[in-house]
């Protein structure tokens, strides 16, 4: 016979074991997040170091470039270098740069004679508007087409959508942008252009809701270029994930229970297939801050991409450093959040 003590002890031990199993899972997620955060901080530190030396390797003297057409004497050039701190040794410039960066002081732009943070703040809004809108459209279109193509893989729709997306993905961005500008902006032959293709607004931009329509019309061509180039990533990832999920046992069981095909896809297969796409979306969000340098340059969109292009053209060291660091730090942060989110959403990653 077993005594009450003998019967209660295993139960208590099992309860303690269950509580112990729960605790390591929570601690494991926290430990994973802290490890990823530490890696992100190390990457950001490497970005700060690399940014300084990377742009010093570019050819050209910023002082001489700024002095073009101004007939400055050598003494005046030396005075300008002293004002900008370019007469100091490279090591001293580096320590000054690191100290200012830690204080969130990105310096003064050589070309604009204004704080870099102010210039970035002015250009951030147009970039978020254009790149953010393009991201939402590309993700929605890619997931919708990828779901249909993956669920009916091998069908005409699958072959057509996959071939079209791969074709657009392989086309150089600048070539596609110039083609769309020529056809729908400038016009072909007697056919006039439909959409404006310069800047974010018209010279005589109206007020109120008409202004919103004016900005929207200027967004059509650059946004279309962005979407056409990147939506294939979401389509292909979603398609391959869904094709893999279709062969899983739980999909077969759901069909055996008598669920309709649409319910099996919507309630079972698609949520699991979305996990890799979530990671890709997080990674692309980081690039939203930087926008698309090529697209913004082609359409002279006044965003961070255009600002970075202008800084490289001078060259404006402080402006290049500030915009480049903002873009890379945003990508690092979003990649870290993607890793942590994937660890939380997918139990297979936690148990690995």
TrEMBL record:
The chain crosses the membrane at residues 33-55, 124-144, 165-188, 208-232, 273-299, 319-345. InterPro entries: BPD_transp_1_N, MetI-like, MetI-like_sf. Residues 124-338 form the ABC transmembrane type-1 domain. It is found in: Cell membrane. GO terms for cellular component: plasma membrane. The keyword Transport applies. It comes from the Bacteria. Residues 1-20 are annotated as: Disordered. One of its GO terms (biological process) is transmembrane transport. SUPFAM superfamilies: MetI-like (SSF161098). It is a multi-pass membrane protein. Keywords: Cell membrane, Membrane, Transmembrane, Transmembrane helix, Transport. The keyword Transmembrane helix applies. Pfam families: BPD_transp_1 (PF00528), BPD_transp_1_N (PF19300). Belongs to the binding-protein-dependent transport system permease family. This is Peptide/nickel transport system permease protein. It comes from Nonomuraea fuscirosea. The lineage of its organism: Bacteria, Bacillati, Actinomycetota, Actinomycetes, Streptosporangiales.
